[in-house]
Amino acid sequence: MSAPSPSPRPAQPELLEFDALYRREFAYVWRMLRAHGVPEARIEDAVQDVFMVVYRRWADWQADSRALAPRSWLFGIARRVAANHRRRQARESRPPDLALVAEAEAPADERTARRRALARLERALDELDERSRTVFVLAELEGMTGPEIAELVGEKLNTVYWRLRTARAKVTKKLQARGGQP
């Protein structure tokens, strides 16, 4: 049995398109991964993983590009990569997150306060199921509307609104229980 052949590389014009997509959507992919629970220490690897998938699947996406917008495609890939990174982190019994250790040891200044607030938010988001977390992140952090989210995640609009309402309530409750403001 012969070894599988490597995926074909995009042709030069497609490589330029890939580069343009990378430059245009890097920050979006970074935010999506971070919002989906990829620890800051692993975020660069996760972004690279997303764009490696994009590179390998470029020809497939180009063939179907009329059916799927670039951000929708990147969102789906980023969500799967984030889930893989979270599973990998759970398997590797790693020491506590360095951001949390730094939070406990750092002086109480504005930067530390922001870091603590972000850590509280991340812990609250970690307690949401994946679908609710996705809707919350897209609405609250990305500023997307209900109809935009429904289209992106492929759910009914009323379901999106229900998930958002319950996610907001859960996050608010968790933040208040931990001494943070909603």
From TrEMBL:
Residues 21-91 form the RNA polymerase sigma-70 region domain. One of its GO terms (biological process) is DNA-templated transcription initiation. GO terms for molecular function: DNA binding; sigma factor activity. It comes from Plesiocystis pacifica SIR-1. Residues 119-170 form the RNA polymerase sigma factor 70 region 4 type domain. This is Sigma-24 (FecI-like) protein. It holds the Pfam family Sigma70_r2. InterPro entries: RNA_pol_sigma-70-like, RNA_pol_sigma-70_dom, RNA_pol_sigma70_r2, RNA_pol_sigma70_r4_t2, RNA_pol_sigma_r2, RNA_pol_sigma_r3/r4-like, WH-like_DNA-bd_sf. Keywords: DNA-binding, Sigma factor, Transcription, Transcription regulation. Belongs to the sigma-70 factor family. ECF subfamily. The keyword Transcription regulation applies.
